[in-house]
Design goal:
This protein has ten helices and twelve strands. With about 450 residues, the chain is α+β, with helices and mostly antiparallel strands. The protein folds into three domains: about 160 residues, Beta-Lactamase (2-Layer Sandwich); about 80 residues, Signal transduction histidine kinase, dimerisation/phosphotransfer (DHp) domain (Helix Hairpins), CATH 1.10.287.130; about 150 residues, Histidine kinase-like ATPase, C-terminal domain (Heat Shock Protein 90), CATH 3.30.565.10. α1 packs antiparallel against α3. The structure holds adenosine-5'-triphosphate (ATP) and magnesium ion (MG). The site of magnesium ion (MG) has 5 residues, from α9.
Length: about 450
């Protein structure tokens, strides 16, 4: 796994090594040149000083000439090339005819020679190059050691600083690790470094969304259990009645009520299941391009026997052209079924339920009209709530149908409006859904 800390530390360490080596190399060549220049200058000065000498018999101790040129050999010659004076008789370096500086080999070692002629005397100063190289080498070693020390000190310092800078990240991890799944309160942002603040903010936003979702699920579970308990309590009561009574008619009556109660519980359990199945995460799993006409056709066929039983005309004029949507088939069918179920359930016999679909400017418009009691305007926003029922005595139900419709319509980025029926009575439900767009999907 990638570690930012390791990347910073190794990056900086490599940087320090590369920089120190470059500086060392640069310093080495610069120093070498400087030292060579200084020593050449020294040789020139020695040659000039030698010219000023008049007495060549004794060494000149007063001017310090002997001591200063301890590594150099100074030779003074007359016009006939006779050696008038030398600081070292054993090393008899021959006279170089060319004035100025010359590098030569003598006795197997390299020498640097400087020749200066003035009047009838010629001064030759010779210096072993080995000396210079040794000086350069020692200074280079000292510089390298200083740089090494600097590099090590810098590396330690960087390690300390990086470790310290990453401590808030570690603390943040610890505080997140300590969080309980049941407590999704946000992470404290006050001590979070600026660089990771956006990440923490996103995490807090996610935690808050999760919190809302989990609370919603908990409420739903509590409501569902509560709603299921009502028919089950009634069933329990009737079972006791049936057991206690000696009257056959009363027992039969209780058994009928038990059947009704079980029916209610079954309808509710089915609706709870459908509610869970139309959760956005589940709908998301299966998206395909569908012909909306097929969905309506299937639902109409499914509900036709019920409509006949209730003597209601279920009318659907199927459009000629396909109406393509990108969506979840099961979800869309559940939505239309809930609406048709309501229309048939709440409308009296002898009425009609009409389904209509048309497209316009990239949208699908679907209407379902019934001739039942309708929903008063003040109730319309409320009926989408889970388990909310209005005039519940009219028909069996759990109050989840329109909540399922809302789930599905929201998932498909559509809208739903409840209004008055076209014939002045009843309810008109209008759905608007985006059509399948090849460029967008
Ligand atoms: N077509 C309609 N005509 C009159 N009232 C309706 C119609 N559709 C819905 N309602 C009212 O809205 C309320 C909520 O409807 P919803 O479909 O959510 O629940 P339900 O039909 O009572 O139960 P479920 O659909 O879960 O079996 C219903 O109780 C009913 O009073
Ligand atoms: Mg319903």
């Amino acid at each position: 796994m990638k570690s930012i800390k390791r990347a910073i530390l190794s990056g900086l360490t490599i940087g320090i090594i590369v920089c120190s080596s470059t500086v060392l190399l640069f310093l080495f060549f610069a120093m070498r040149e400087e030292i060579f220049e200084i020593m050449d200058y020294q040789m020139e000065q020695v040659a000039l000083a030698a010219h000023l000498r008049r007495d060549y018999s004794t060494p000149d101790t007063e001017s310090g000439f002997e001591e200063k040129t301890v590594d150099s050999i100074v030779q003074i010659r007359d016009a006939e090339n006779n050696l008038l004076y030398t600081t070292n008789r054993e090393t008899a370096i021959p006279l170089v005819s060319k004035p100025g500086f010359t590098d030569l080999m003598y006795d197997g070692t390299p020498w640097r020679v400087y020749v200066l002629s003035k009047g009838d005397t010629t001064v030759q100063v010779a210096q072993p190059l080995k000396e210079r190289k040794e000086i350069v080498f020692f200074i280079a070693v000292e510089t390298a050691l200083s740089l090494l020390f600097l590099a090590v000190a810098l590396a330690i310092w960087i390690y300390i600083v990086v470790n310290k800078s990453f401590r808030p990240v570690q603390e943040l991890c610890d505080s997140i690790r300590r969080k309980k799944a049941s407590r999704l309160d946000p992470v404290d942002e006050t001590m979070v470094p600026e660089e990771i603040l956006p990440l923490v903010r996103e995490l807090n936003a996610l935690l808050s969304r999760l919190d809302i979702a989990i609370k919603g699920q908990k409420h739903f579970l509590a409501d569902a259990a509560h709603e299921l308990r009502t028919p089950l309590t009634a069933v329990d009561l009737q079972v006791q009645n049936a057991l206690d009574t000696g009257n056959e008619l009363e027992r039969e009556n209780s058994l009928k009520k038990i059947k009704k109660g079980i029916n209610r519980a079954t309808v509710m359990a089915n609706q709870i299941l459908m509610m869970a199945k139309t959760d956005a995460d589940i709908l998301e799993e299966n998206i395909e391009v569908l012909d909306f006409r097929t969905i309506i056709g299937d639902v109409v066929s499914e509900f036709s026997p019920l409509a006949m039983e209730r003597e209601i005309d279920l009318l659907w004029s199927k459009p000629e052209a396909p109406i393509l949507l990108a969506g979840n088939e099961r979800g869309l069918k559940a939505m239309i079924s809930s609406l048709v179920d309501n229309a048939l359930k709440y409308s009296p016999s002898g009425t009609a339920v009409t389904l209509n679909a048309f497209t316009d400017t990239g949208k699908l418009f679907f209407e379902i009209n019934d001739e039942g009691p309708g929903i008063p305007a003040d109730q319309r926003p409320k009926v989408f709530r889970r388990f909310y029922r209005y005039r519940s005595e009219r028909a069996l139900g759990s109050g989840l149908g329109l909540a399922i419709v809302k789930n599905v319509i929201d998932f498909h980025k559509g809208s739903i409006t409840l209004g008055d029926g076209d014939n002045g009575t009843g309810l008109k439900v209008e759905l608007v859904l985006p059509l399948f767009d090849e460029n967008r999907h």
